[in-house]
């Protein structure tokens, strides 16, 4: 069963299964030019903020995620798995790609 | 060419976010040989055809990246001489006692102006490659397990002050410049490939604002077929691939870039040519960087410039 992930400020949403990372689902959305980085929580290019919803995480590099980030759900999308419908905001290097309408195919 | 001074890349210590997941990846997918674990919990690996006890060491940490990269030098006298030369040049050095790493002698450690920690050492226990020293077979079962590269070949590191780093390697450590990519204005280098041997690179650096970053550690394959087989094994194991299989213009090496489970990039690599120290460097202009990175596709992949650990 998939959850629905909504990207605030864009009106876009996508389906994401609980065993899929938020980044995998985001990539399936077909936005051109999203920097898919290491997919291992190490490089930090996929930073997002979860605004609402339940999720699980796997370990991610503290170079890119501080305690304050964790407290405010500012996490790396490749290491976050949805456990309910979610809404998120793209921050960091992904932002200009996802939020720029020209990048929608 | 008589190899003296700095001989070759000897070891890299890389940080991982989940040790056991990473051990399974490096042992069973990349196909390195696990050779030991120490009291600190570090896990030691070598490539099948390397003879020294270890070349790639992983350590669990809360962030990815590289702790240090080490070169083996000819002997103890060379180690002492290079230590003195580095200090005379104005770099602080530190001695790490023998045995701090398993089966490894005393190390001389220093930090480059790019923020990377480098080491030199003369001794590491030779445990052989599993083949006989008299009338050896050309390969054994270890070559068939996973991707199974031949050796740790080089690393590409990202950080500031690449011009200063080049001076240290060429003026103190006896390396020579093999290839370079110019800055857009043509006045400096954005990336340099340095050799202490007959290889197209033993280490490489690219200019980057953040210090101490790892772009990739590279593992040598024996043939293009073996690089393609590595790509098959990556896909079978859902390893995230960055670029390739393709050929670099720079070095002419054939390559796949991919990431370990913690986001540390690695390369499976073969080929290149055999430069000598009297060759002048080959130069790429910035507008040809795409061909330098990916010759067939002529493409400067964005991740090459922006994704590091
Ligand atoms: S893609 Fe590298 S941290 Fe998510």
TrEMBL record, chain A:
Pfam family, one: Fer2
Superkingdom of this protein's organism: Bacteria
A GO term for molecular function: 2 iron, 2 sulfur cluster binding
2Fe-2S ferredoxin-type domain ranges (all copies): 1-94
InterPro entries documented for this protein: 2Fe-2S_ferredoxin-like_sf, 2Fe-2S_ferredoxin-type, 2Fe2S_fd_BS, Beta-grasp_dom_sf
SUPFAM superfamilies from the UniProt entry: 2Fe-2S ferredoxin-like
Stored CDD domains: fer2
Full protein name: Ferredoxin
Species per Swiss-Prot/TrEMBL record: Parazoarcus communis SWub3 = DSM 12120
UniProtKB/TrEMBL annotation, chain B:
Pfam family, one: Glyoxalase
PROSITE patterns: EXTRADIOL_DIOXYGENAS, VOC
A molecular-function term among this protein's GO annotations: ferrous iron binding
TM ranges: none
UniProt keyword list: Aromatic hydrocarbons catabolism, Dioxygenase, Iron, Metal-binding, Oxidoreductase, Repeat
Subunit text: Homotetramer.
UniProt protein name: Metapyrocatechase
Organism of provenance: Parazoarcus communis SWub3 = DSM 12120
Lineage: Bacteria, Pseudomonadati, Pseudomonadota, Betaproteobacteria, Rhodocyclales
């Amino acid at each position: 069963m998939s959850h629905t992930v909504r990207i605030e400020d864009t009106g876009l949403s996508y389906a994401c299964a609980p065993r899929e990372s938020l980044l995998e689902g985001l990539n399936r959305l077909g936005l051109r030019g999203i920097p898919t980085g290491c997919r291992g929580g190490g490089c930090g290019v996929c930073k997002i903020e979860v605004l609402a919803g339940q999720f699980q995480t796997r370990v991610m590099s503290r170079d890119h995620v501080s305690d304050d980030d964790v407290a405010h759900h500012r996490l790396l999308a490749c290491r976050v798995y949805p456990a309910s419908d979610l809404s998120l905001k793209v921050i960091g290097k992904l932002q200009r790609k996802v939020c720029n309408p020209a990048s929608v195919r | 060419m008589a190899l003296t001074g700095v001989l070759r890349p000897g070891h890299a210590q890389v940080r991982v976010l989940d040790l056991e997941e990473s051990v399974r990846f490096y042992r069973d997918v990349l196909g390195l040989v696990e050779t030991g674990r120490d009291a600190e919990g570090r896990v030691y690996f070598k490539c099948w055809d390397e003879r020294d006890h270890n070349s790639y060491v992983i350590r669990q940490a809360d962030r990815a990246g590289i702790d240090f990269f080490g070169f083996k030098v000819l002997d103890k006298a060379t180690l002492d001489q290079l230590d003195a030369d580095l200090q005379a040049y104005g770099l602080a050095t530190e001695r790490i006692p023998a045995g701090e790493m398993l089966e490894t002698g005393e190390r001389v450690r220093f930090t480059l102006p790019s923020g990377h920690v480098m080491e030199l050492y003369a001794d590491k226990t030779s445990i052989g490659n599993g083949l006989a020293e008299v009338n050896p077979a050309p390969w054994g079962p270890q070559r068939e397990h996973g991707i199974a590269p031949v050796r740790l070949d080089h690393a590409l590191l990202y950080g500031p002050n690449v011009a200063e780093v080049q001076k240290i390697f060429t003026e103190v450590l006896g390396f020579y410049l093999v290839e370079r990519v110019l800055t857009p204005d043509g006045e400096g280098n954005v990336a340099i490939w340095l050799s202490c041997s007959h290889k197209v690179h033993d280490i490489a650096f690219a200019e980057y604002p953040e210090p101490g970053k790892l772009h990739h550690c590279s593992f040598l394959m024996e043939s293009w077929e073996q690089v393609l087989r590595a790509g098959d094994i990556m896909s079978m194991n859902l390893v995230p691939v960055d670029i390739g299989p393709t050929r670099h213009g720079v070095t002419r090496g054939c390559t796949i870039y991919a990431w370990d489970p913690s986001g540390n990039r690695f390369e499976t690599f073969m080929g290149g040519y055999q430069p000598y120290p009297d060759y002048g460097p080959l130069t790429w202009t910035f507008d040809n960087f795409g061909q330098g990175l990916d010759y067939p596709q002529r493409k400067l992949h964005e991740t090459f410039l922006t994704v590091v650990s």
